[in-house]
Amino acid sequence: MWKWEVADPRGVFVIVHGAGEHHGRYQWLAEKWNAHGFDVVMGDLPGQGKTRGKRGHIQSFNQYIDTISEWIDEANTKGLPVFLLGHSMGGLVVIRTLMERNVALVSGVILSSPCLGLSQPPAKTKELASKLIHRIVPTFSSNSGIRSELNTRNEEIRELYIKDELRVTKVSARWYQELSKAMRLALRYPEKFPNVPLLVLQAGDDYLVNKVDVRDWFNEVGSTEKFYKEWEGLYHEVFNEPEREDVFRYAVGFVNLLAP
């Protein structure tokens, strides 16, 4: 866990990264929130970044939930408004955490292209094979299919992603089954998502996440204050796109309503 702190903060952001990456890819975003008066708490999820254990592998999705629950607890120590921001799989982790844990002290949630369904799910034969393999050899790994050209149109970010030594390119059979289960639970029980202010920032040209699933989930959750913004022409990582300043300003507008 790492903290980016400012003098006299008005709130705290907990940022949760996506699959195959690490918190270091969110330094730009952390600095932007710092500039607007927010502390930032974030770290690497199990099996990602600099964490111990097999890379790209988890035994249970609850490992992710336990991890960010600790980050949220740390964020709440200052008694300030706490906001959660999750990208892609990190968005799914935020959703499942709020469904399963009593996180009363959360002032708002921002989800960036949350992983509630895959744009190109595996063929049925591969799906069946994965279900069998994860019971026999749960750590068996294969390519994740996440490629830089699918993430963003930003050439500089693409190059950094390709050269990133902390990038995880293979995921285990157990990891995939746990991800699939988490997506199913989120979509099946939207009523379990608490009534917290919600902003969904969805890429219009998303080649990794199924934006139809995202919109369907958004329509079903019971948050009385919820906003959905689809960014036409933007790829999956909306906070890394050439238009990311526009995306960030939109997010700031949402937060200013809740923590003026």
Explained architecture:
With 260 residues, this protein is of the alpha/beta class. The chain has one domain: Alpha/Beta hydrolase fold, catalytic domain (Rossmann fold, 3-Layer(aba) Sandwich), CATH 3.40.50.1820. It has helices at 27-35, 62-75, 89-100, 124-136, 148-151, 155-163, 173-188, 211-220, 244-258; strands at residues 2-4, 11-16, 38-42, 82-87, 108-112, 141-143, 170-172, 198-203, 226-231. The two termini are 27 Å apart.
- Give the mean pLDDT: 93
The CATH C-level name is: Alpha Beta
CATH superfamily: Alpha/Beta hydrolase fold, catalytic domain
Largest sheet: 7 strands, mixed
Helical stretch count?
Answer: 9
User: Which strand order do you get reading across the main beta sheet?
Assistant: 1-3-2-4-5-8-9
Helix content: 25-40%
Radius of gyration: 17 Å
Gap between N and C termini: 27 Å
Principal-axes geometry comes out as: globular
Q: Write down how many β-strands occur, each being a DSSP E stretch of 2 or more residues.
A: 9
Structural class: alpha/beta
* Structural domain count: 1
Strand content: 15-25%
Poorly predicted parts? none
N-to-C SSE string, H for helix and E for strand: EEHEHEHEHEHHEHEHEH
CATH topology description: Rossmann fold
Helices and strands in order:
Blueprint: E1 2-4, E2 11-16, H1 27-35, E3 38-42, H2 62-75, E4 82-87, H3 89-100, E5 108-112, H4 124-136, E6 141-143, H5 148-151, H6 155-163, E7 170-172, H7 173-188, E8 198-203, H8 211-220, E9 226-231, H9 244-258
Parallel strand pairs: 2-3, 2-4, 4-5, 5-8, 8-9
Antiparallel strand pairs: 1-3, 6-7
Helix pairs in contact: 2-3, 3-7, 4-7
